[in-house]
Specification:
The complex is a heterodimer of chains A (377) and B (310).
Chain A: H1 2-18, H2 20-40, E1 48-54, H3 59-69, E2 74-79, H4 83-91, E3 97-101, H5 105-110, E4 118-121, H6 126-154, H7 177-208, H8 210-215, H9 221-251, H10 259-283, H11 287-304, H12 317-322, H13 327-341, H14 349-373
Parallel strand pairs in A: 1-2, 1-3
Antiparallel strand pairs in A: 3-4
Helix pairs in contact in A: 1-9, 2-7, 2-9, 7-9, 7-10, 7-11, 7-13, 9-10, 10-11, 10-13, 10-14, 13-14
Chain B: E1 4-13, E2 16-26, E3 31-35, H1 42-49, E4 57-62, E5 65-66, H2 71-77, E6 78-81, H3 93-103, H4 108-121, H5 137-148, E7 155-159, H6 167-182, E8 186-191, H7 194-197, E9 202-207, E10 210-215, H8 217-224, E11 229-234, H9 237-246, E12 250-256, E13 259-264, H10 270-283, E14 288-294, H11 298-309
Parallel strand pairs in B: 3-8, 3-9, 6-7, 7-8
Antiparallel strand pairs in B: 1-2, 1-4, 4-5, 9-10, 11-13, 11-14, 12-13
The chains are: A mainly alpha (377), B alpha/beta (310).
Bound molecules: adenosine-5'-triphosphate and magnesium ion (MG).
């Protein structure tokens, strides 16, 4: 049995190494993803230059201005004294946003009318403008919540939060890029690579007919699948290391927790991805179908359901249950705990189990399906 | 005990019957030819016998093991070369041999001895490092046969091994088959080159999933071709053919290279026909230089059998 598995592993390694084009692609893909996502979607716009146009100059307005001053997202660079000066400052880029506080700000606020604050944002770069708008909105809402709670408390009324503001935005202002983006990216990259590569490697053998020669030999489905998986585990580990190194140099990522926890989680996750790839190969008959199916089945859930781009807590309850179908959700939790927070195993041991169950499930189905297909070529 | 015994083997794909209630046996050590046109059901039969396709009904024993209940033992005792080329084009000759050797559990000295043997019979010594994809079809097929028998099986199945191979390489390939057979391996081979079938000890003709005839090439010719075939060498071959066809004296008349072949009607004698030919052609001022009785080919047998069916 070992001779047979070893023969398959060796052959698979040879084929991977001989196919230079795919190999370059496999290593270029994570680099590309990290740079693209890391920079194009860098949601850490910090030190936004803010101009203040305070028409009221009251205690409340100063309180409000302090919200901006105390955050690393904003730098108050100047106080303007006229609408013209505000325009000028935006045009010559000395500020990116002007906050105008009206004369009746406190009056309206305390009389429980809606007090409004005006923001003028430099809209040349639409993306940045949106981000700035989200930041100032959230800062404002935070302020208004805090102050109204104070006021109401004074009047003896306790309030519950009317709505969860954090969920409104597609970013979470409390988190940083590395903490938020990198775990999601690692999960996506690994999943896509694992699923696609195994699926293609098996379907190619079906398409070219070489699988028939293996089926007629004493190799069992278990031996075949194991032989196919082992080389890709190594490849995926190399890619994980590459991603971590890139993350370190591009985004200052550092592993706070124990490497062994990270390695265990990553290997389990890789095996889960490979199992899914093998499952895809039992469904797809052509390389093209295999490729499309694997990108769909790996990328979509990993991006959408894992909490990578949309926070799971803000999803409808039904969708929240569905998110449990993607191992990426659990892997991201492991990554955040080990890499970012450096917590101990008590914070994520359950995630290990979830991922293992996922992998075993798909491995078993694939083995049963492979055994059946062998008799019905 | 026979190498292969097939009993009422049937394979249906939906409503379509690809192999229809087939029974036959293959003797130990013989070269057994399985002949049929495209879609006759040859590959389907082979795949069932190799244990990679489940029969709809019927059973067979291969090397004494049932293909239905003991397919794993069957697999250990056979070699199989599929109709589609199934070595890895992106691996070298040696890597392919190593891989298939490993898959059959060979290692160490055992493996290197067998590797030497494969390279020798495929005539590829010194070319171990060549990429398999770069080899011409004929050589690829020899290598494929070598790897198919790397584990020294008692029985080997070859599914159209000479498809797309040039005539000289086909000769070499058949030499290889003869070598295997002389070493005691039972060879089950399909082909639709009828000239190759002459090299088989026994053949089976299959058409639309049903067996239509079987026996040694000699038996088949004797049993199915009762009429005499004459080969005529004469001037103005085309004109002569038209004249002979129009005379309605023969069962059929065809051009065969530079000669004409005529099939006599059932009760005609050779002498009678020879006289008729010389006389008829000389009337048109065509000179006949030679008339010989020739032995029928398997092609003649096959055509006769298919004509009979229609
Ligand atoms: N998996 C399948 N599903 C449906 N029909 C099939 C399947 N495999 C084979 N057939 C049909 O069964 C018939 C016999 O096929 P088979 O491959 O056995 O023919 P063959 O004698 O090997 O022909 P060839 O000389 O072209 O290789 C064909 O009509 C083919 O279309
Ligand atoms: Mg065939």
């Amino acid at each position: 049995m070992l001779t047979r598995i070893y023969a398959i592993v060796k052959k698979e390694f040879r084929q991977i190494l001989r196919d230079n084009r795919s190999l370059i692609l496999i290593f270029f893909y994570p680099v590309f993803m990290l740079i693209l996502f890391g920079y194009a979607l860098n949601y850490d716009v910090t030190h936004i230059k803010i101009g203040i146009y305070d028409l009221e100059k009251s205690e409340l307005s100063r309180e409000f201005i302090k919200t901006f001053n105390s955050s690393e997202y904003f730098d108050i660079v100047k106080y303007v004294t006229s609408p013209e000066e505000a325009d000028r400052s935006l045009n010559d880029k000395t500020v990116q946003c002007v906050v105008t506080i009206p004369v009746d700000f406190s009056k309206k606020f305390y009389s429980k009318e809606n007090a409004s604050v005006q923001f003028l944002i430099d809209g040349v770069n639409g993306n940045t403008a949106t981000i700035i708008m989200n930041y100032v909105n959230s800062a404002t809402l935070g302020f208004s919540e805090k102050v109204s709670a104070d006021i109401l408390a004074k009047e003896g009324i306790r309030i519950t939060r009317p709505l969860n503001i954090a969920g409104i935005f597609w970013y979470n202002p409390d988190l940083k890029t590395t903490e938020f983006l990198i775990p999601g990216l690692i999960a996506t990259i690994l999943m896509v690579i694992c699923v696609t590569l195994t699926a293609i490697s098996i379907v190619r053998e079906k398409e070219q007919g070489t699988i028939e020669q293996i089926n007629v030999s004493p190799v069992s489905p278990f031996e075949l699948i194991l032989g196919k998986i082992i080389p890709y585990i190594f490849l995926a580990i190399l890619i994980s290391i590459l991603v971590l190194i890139l993350g370190h140099f591009l985004f200052g990522l550092e592993i706070k927790g124990r490497i062994i926890y990270l390695a265990a989680g990553t290997i389990l996750y890789i095996i889960a991805g490979l199992s899914l790839g093998i499952f895809v190969s039992t469904i797809a008959d052509s390389m093209q179908v295999a490729f499309q199916l694997s990108t769909l089945i790996s990328q979509l859930p990993t991006n959408i359901l894992s909490g990578f781009t949309f926070p799971i807590e803000s999803m409808p309850p039904f969708i929240q249950i569905i998110t449990n179908l993607t191992p990426a959700k659990f892997f991201i939790i492991i990554l955040r705990s080990v890499v970012i927070k450096g917590t101990g195993i008590e914070a994520f041991w359950q995630q290990y189990i979830y991922i293992t169950i996922f992998a075993l499930f798909f491995l078993t189905i694939s083995m049963i399906k492979t055994a059946r297909q062998r008799r019905t070529v | 005990m026979n190498s292969i015994e097939v009993k009422n083997l049937t394979k249906k794909f939906g409503n379509f019957t690809s192999v229809d209630n087939v029974s036959f046996e293959v003797y130990r050590g013989e070269i057994f030819g399985f002949l049929g046109a495209n879609g006759a059901g040859k590959s389907t039969t082979i795949k069932m016998l190799c244990g990679i396709l489940e029969p709809t009904s019927g059973d067979a024993t291969v090397g004494g093991f049932s293909i239905k209940t003991q397919s794993e033992q069957v697999k250990r005792n056979i070699g199989y070369m599929s109709q589609k080329f199934s070595l890895y084009n992106d691996l070298t000759i040696e890597e392919n041999i190593n891989f298939f050797g490993g898959v059959y559990g060979l290692e160490g000295e055992n493996l290197s001895n067998r590797k030497k043997w494969v390279l020798k019979i495929a005539n590829l010594e010194g070319k171990e490092k060549l990429l398999t994809g770069s080899l011409p079809t004929g050589i690829k097929q020899r290598l494929a046969l070598g790897t198919a028998v790397i584990h020294s099986p008692n029985i080997v199945f070859l599914d159209e091994p000479t498809g797309g191979v040039d005539p000289i390489e086909r000769r070499n390939f058949w030499d290889l088959i003869n070598t295997l057979s002389s070493e005691g391996t039972t060879v089950f081979v399909t082909t639709h080159y009828l000239d190759e079938a002459e090299f088989c000890n026994r053949i089976l003709l299959i058409n639309a999933g049903k067996i239509i005839a079987g026996g040694s090439p000699k038996e088949l010719k004797e049993n199915y071709i009762k009429t005499i075939i004459l080969e005529i060498e004469c001037g103005k071959t085309i004109d002569a053919l038209t004249i002979l066809e129009d005379s309605n004296f023969f069962g059929s008349a065809t051009i065969f290279g530079n000669y004409i072949h005529v099939k006599l009607k059932e009760n005609d004698t050779e002498e009678n026909a020879k006289d008729f030919i010389v006389k008829t052609l000389s009337e048109s001022k065509i000179n006949t230089s030679r008339i010989d009785k020739i032995s029928p080919t398997l092609e003649d047998v096959f055509i006769t059998l298919l004509e009979k069916k229609d």
